[in-house]
Amino acid sequence: MHGSRIPIWFFIGLLLAAYGGMILGYGCYEAISGNFAPGVQLTELHTPIWWGAVLLLLGVVYVVKFRPGKKS
Amino acid sequence: MLEMVPLSAAVPNFATLPALMVGSTPIAHLRPLDIVVIALYFGMVIWIGFYLKGQSNTSEEFFMAGREMTAWIAGLSFVSANLGSLELMGWAGSAYQYGILATNWYWIGAIPAMIFLGLVMMPFYYVSKTHSVPGYLDLRYGGEARTVSAIAFALEMILMSGVNMFAMAVVMKVVLGWDINFSIIVSSVAVALYVGLGGLRSAIFNEVLQFVLIWGGALLVPILGLYQAGGWTGLQTKIIANMHSDSYFHLWRDTGSFAANPMGVHWTGIVFGLGFVISFGYWTTDFLVVQRVLAAHNLRAARMAPLIGSFFKMAVPAIVILPGLLGLVLLQNPDGSRRVLVGEDVVAACGMSGAQQVVDPAGCSAAMAKTNLTPEQSAKVLAGGPSAELHTYNQALPLMMVRYLGPGLLGLGITALIAGFMSGMAGNVSAFSTVWSYDIYKPLIYKNGSDSHYVMVGRLSIVAGVIVSIGAAYLVQQFHGIMDYVQALFSIFVAPLLAAILFGMFWKRATRWAGFLGLLLGILFSASMFVWVKLYPAKLAVVALSADAKPMAENVFRALWAFCFAAVIIIVVSLFTKAKPESELDGLVYGATVLPKEEWVPLYKREWFWAVLVGAIFVALNVMVW
Predict the structure, then answer these.
(1) Of the candidates A11, A16, A22, which has its C-beta nearest B48's C-beta?
(2) Domain of B24?
(3) B3, B306, B308: which is closest to B125 by C-alpha?
(4) Based on the domain organization, do B352 and B215 belong to the same domain?
(5) Which of B447, B462, B487 marks a domain boundary?
């Protein structure tokens, strides 16, 4: 699953990084504007910020580690 | 279910799921960010399909993913093939109804079988170089057993794919308000594209992707729920206060009699019916999951894959059972009172007219009287209005998602559900394609085709399979009762197949005719029992050996009797017919096979080490919530 082929982990990393970036960005917007989605509980924990950051970090690690052309 | 049917044939509620399509208000409202998250997922799976097309040119590549998957990929795909969205939602709903007892379907209903597959059975599947489970039956017994097994399996897969497709459309309608036709068309086109292009490799890639998305999308619910409930102790205290029972936290304590637990099951049924026949039947002989492990790149990876999968399987209750339990104390009505979920039959009985009035107040009252709804809540439902809407047990997970997940995160949660449905369909059609091409088309229709011919047949069978699935989905929409029968297909087929495989693999004396007749008569016996209880529901007491047994007990006991029946047939017929010479059983039967010597590896890379570890954790978990 390595070598010249793109491993599945690269695709997963890419998607996680994109999701993490978007969710983190939206979480920052929410925190700054104070404009939280109605009905959602525990907004004071700023879940999108830390969960988005976790997804982004995981995604970046996977993208870098499994990027095409990298020797495994 | 569906994928889950096997272990979750026990969740009967989805048979009435179509009733929810009428007049329900969507649970969730997506924002633009959520739509982008979902669209990105679709873009990614189609990209993966096109990318993998170039690596799926030979039949070995298309049907077996080139047999080059690592243990991790095969293991995650193996466990993910069973992690469908209806399973997630269904078992969260069951946890809401029955508590931790539902965890048995994840632990004893999976872990021992996975360990057995990895340590004992995998060498025979792998060394025989079979491409499918019917293929193994062909090598071991002959073409008759293969044909029965292949036809039954292909039929099951294609109908199951249709049910999966329809179920996804209904869930998307109920949760998001999406049009049924839109969901069916979008999901079927995406699945046909990515599996048709990339074959099994594409299905496996998407299952691994789905696995990550499910955890990324669903893990927040128990984390935030436990935080809000005051941790595990707080959750226990609140449930005992609300429900006046501590049964919700015991896995085995109340299974000494059918009447002592809300599920109406007995520990003998759980251990022998679920823990042995259904679980071993599903995890060790169902080609849908075994195909993932056969794609491993060597024998050690093939043996490690189910063991890796078993660790994750043990963890799944964290994102399924916990949200159900948390829903018991955290879900609220718009007025702040505790929201009580009910069965789908109650929601159907309390259907509203366009003017937000209950159509049949008397029927609705009678149905609600059997639930935990308070008189005030029942009165509100009868009075109508948007705040009085009832929700079902199966909606526990989406309701919990909506409670905690804002824009973006909710999109991720919904994407996880969509991914679960789509990879379920993809698993169905990819397994169908392999069995159709290798075990039906090649031996029975056109024997001497070229390799590229069979790849073309495989691609076409995927497209045809998706088209038939769409037909099955609309058929289920017209005739709702079919769903119940399709879901029963697996449980009818699994026990006789397990008997045929186990005797074939571990008894040199089992003969060609014994395998064929054991399988065929076992299926007929199992189907007869199913029809018998359908026609005369009171006969459940005979099948499950107790008047207190509930429908949940039927599948496990039916499977147990069908296994015993098929085993007796195999033994008796074997004793009266001629066995194959031992030289023809090399690579197929225990005691007649010299397994290849594996290279030395450190302790932590050995399958026995991981099997002992997973076994110890399994025992510890069961003791912890005894």
Answers:
(1) A11
(2) 5-331+398-487
(3) B306
(4) no
(5) B487
In total, the C-beta contacts within 8 angstroms joining chain A to chain B are 80
In a domain, B185, yes or no: yes
Q: Which of B320, B319, B328 is nearest to B236 (CA)?
A: B328
Average pLDDT of the segment spanning B476-481 = 70
Tell me, yes or no, whether B218 and B367 share the same domain: no
Helices and strands (H, E) in chain B, number of each type: 28, 0
For B360-404, write each residue's pLDDT tens digit.
888 888 888 888 888 888 888 887 765 567 888 888 888 899 899
Cβ A41–B208 below 8 Å, yes or no?
no
- Whether B354 and B438 map to the same domain: the answer is no
Chain B residues touching A22 at Cβ < 8 A: 33, 36-37, 408
Q: Does the residue B583 lie in any domain?
A: no
The span from the CA of A71 to the CA of B24, in Å, is 54
Whose CA is closest to B126, among B144, B139, B109, B110? B139
Q: Determine the pLDDT at residue B375.
A: 83
Q: Does position B15 have pLDDT exceeding 70, yes or no?
A: no
Q: What is the CATH number of the domain that holds B99?
A: 1.20.1730.10
Residue B501 lies in a domain: no
Q: Is residue B163 part of a domain?
A: yes
ipTM computed for the complex: 0.93
Question: How many Å apart are CA B458 and CA B470, to the nearest integer?
Answer: 18
Residues B433 and B454 in one domain: yes
Q: Provide the number of structural domains found in chain B.
A: 2
Secondary structure of residue B338 in the 3-state scheme: strand
Q: How many residues does chain B have?
A: 626
Shared-domain flag, residues B153 and B215: yes
Per-residue pLDDT tens over the stretch B210-269: 899 999 988 999 999 999 999 999 999 999 888 888 888 889 998 888 777 877 778 888
Single-letter code of the amino acid located at B219:
L
pLDDT at position A72 = 56
**Averaged pLDDT score across all residues of chain B:** 86
Q: Is A42 within 8 Å of chain B by CB?
A: yes
Q: Which residues contact A66 (CB under 8 A, 6 or more apart)?
A: A6, A7, A9, A10, A13
Q: Alpha helices of B177-244 — where are they, by DSSP H? A: 180-218, 220-229, 231-243
- Chain A CB contacts of B220 under 8 Å are 47, 51
- Please check the confidence at residue B7 and state whether its pLDDT lies above 60: no
Which tokens is B406 given? Answer: 């804002």
- Both structure tokens of A24: 């983190």
Cβ pair B497, B462 in contact under 8 A: no
Distance CA B555, CA B12 (A): 11
Per-residue exposure over B80-112, b if at least 16 CB sit within 10 Å of its own CB, e if not: bbbbbbbbbbbbbbbbbbbbbbbbbbbbbbbbb
> How many CA atoms are closer than 13 Å to the CA of B605, on its beta-carbon side?
8
Chain B residues in contact with A23 by the CB 8 A cut-off are 408-409, 412
